[in-house]
């Protein structure tokens, strides 16, 4: 780190050239943008796959894709969206870009490890997509439950396992880097309780990553052994147990939901105070609620297994633990509402996406508390109700915040503003399309449509077509966004250093920032949310 | 109050702020009135909501009662939070050219205690209530009566050494009808040990307790009848018992709910609920003649 920060910018390879984004760059800002652009490209791939699913489901019969390919598509859609879009962007992209600014450092604690972590992603993603063309991708869903995953074509399943191991490895390296950066690289005198909330969110997320991802890695290695060497860990016909896999898988994959959602909680806590011109309400309780979510998030995994082979007392334990996550989550939502209350709210694309996040996530949270109740879950488990719930959390929640955050930080990334009318169009199309797509799926699930099917009872045709129209709107919504991002990069209004008059340290430097982040010493920010308390320069 | 014991919670919520001197009296009255409005709307919507399929088992009305309560509470919370959000966006919209800041309020401990308590109380209530529902569905029975658990393996045709209890309507009693279910890619096969009938369609008598002894041959499947509000995974190596009592004659879908391979979506059949006479007729008609 020392060597890069001391170098004059002219001596840094490819500095200022777009080629640096294709290099093994050690600059955390370059790595952050690398994560974001790579993640967005995979989002487009995952979106095309989602479009294929909704096209198949526009009619009740299985007529568009072959049944094997349909299962490959739904497996890849889930895997790509989770491991190559949401986790890398909401953690890797914003984390790498913002955390060093927030702690007052000039780079991450381990810049080389950081570059290694990023460069594991493109090969893993390309390998995963390539599996479509070399013998077919995995067909067993992103959950890869054995014995199904032991019986579907082995090559695709093994490539899937290898890719997810690489992506999990990348995530662990990133998590370690964030923990060390936040704990050890803080500017002298900067107290933990003065950190912007996104740091706390990333600290909590990284703890989850480091504790739970190795469990997934071990599980997938065992699954690979079952496929290659017929070890039978999870194969009941030779003495294994399929339910143990589910426990191990969800021990990672439930915390994975918080790995996708907690950073979004952090980002929205940065965004709302700036655009409402008010301090973040209840900083201390926000911090403790993140820690509570981290703890509770680790002890709720079996709520994915209520219809599986689970003893009744365990069902109850996991019901209670899961329900209680609503308490710290509720605190955060009430605090955000209180942050907006009495503010001076700018109704721009950033704040609209952030407020839509609140609406969507509250709905997803309500269905989440309902799903935590064993008797309720038994009927709707593994149906489109769960598909709807999950997308309300992960798309309606996290993806909306990713877009909100892009509108917020794009001026910092590029030095130019995004176009507001195009942003509004993007917002309206996304919000309407999203709710049309996933709203009806609640009804579908409750009335008898299971998930992961390529055909269904004709009585569900209308609602499925509504859902598919919604998906089409969501696909269209990416067009104004892409036009906006490319057009504004060259022709957008020049932003200046601090167009939002924000107080957090990334705005107290030029846009885009120099390699060393600040021309001089790191600024002293004691009140990152001190709106109305400290002077903000227009 | 009688039907929806949750109704007192929001009433209290409206009064708490004034008790702790957080809000002015006027604001407290408004909060109270809004809360009462939300409860009434929530209860009204919850009573009228009709989003679930036909009720065809004794489990179904119990399930739907839980659903109505959850829907009422959900409506109150959703409308309350979204209403406050939209109100804030309209009321506190920044006038053009205003470069000032909002009120520099960094927190309010009593207020935060209140809204920690609200979800805690709601969640506690929902948890206790759903435990009660779960017990009425017979979900806790295998735990309460271990003899049932241990008695089953001996008679289990799957020759497994363990039997996992599914959810049941009334447990601890012997079933009126026992059916062996085999799930395989991509069909359910039903075998009636009494009449030595094997069929791809389940037939059961109305109002009698049916016990399904389920096993899977290849991968995990799940047995789901939406109109009965029951679902149970069938896992290879783990023979599973599921009991239910159907109470409405008719034909309902049986759906596999766990991804089981390419034809997962086609893994569907029907359960036909007969009155007792019709069921006996079906039984005699289909029993193979003794050779």
SSE arrangement:
The complex is a heterodimer of chains A (538) and B (291).
Chain A: H1 2-6, H2 28-56, H3 67-103, H4 111-119, H5 121-130, H6 148-151, H7 154-184, H8 197-229, H9 242-276, H10 283-297, H11 312-324, H12 326-340, H13 349-372, H14 374-380, H15 384-414, H16 420-446, H17 461-491
Chain B: H1 8-19, H2 25-48, H3 59-91, H4 109-136, H5 141-144, H6 146-155, E1 164-165, E2 177-184, E3 187-192, E4 197-199, E5 202-205, E6 209-216, E7 221-225, E8 230-234, E9 240-245, E10 250-256, E11 268-274, H7 276-286
Parallel strand pairs in B: 1-9, 2-6, 5-11
Antiparallel strand pairs in B: 2-3, 3-4, 6-9, 7-8, 7-10, 10-11
Helix pairs in contact in B: 1-2, 1-4, 2-3, 3-4
Task: Write a structural description.
The complex is a heterodimer of chains A (538) and B (291). Helices cover 66% and strands 0% of the residues of chain A. With 538 residues, chain A is mainly α. The longest helix of chain A is centred in the N-terminal third of the chain and has 37 residues, at 67-103. Chain A starts with a helix and ends in a 47-residue tail after the last helix. The model of chain A is unreliable at 1-5 (pLDDT under 50). Residues 1-5 and 143-161 of chain B have low confidence and may be disordered. Helices cover 42% and strands 21% of the residues of chain B. Chain B is of the alpha/beta class and 291 residues long. In chain B, the strands form 2 sheets. In chain B, strands 1-9-6-2-3-4 form a 6-stranded mixed sheet, with no helix packed on it. A 5-stranded mixed sheet of chain B has the order 5-11-10-7-8. In chain B, a hairpin with a 4-residue loop joins strand 7 (221-225) and strand 8 (230-234). Chains A and B meet through helix 3, helix 9, helix 10, helix 11 and helix 12 of A and helix 3, helix 4, helix 5, strand 1 and strand 8 of B.
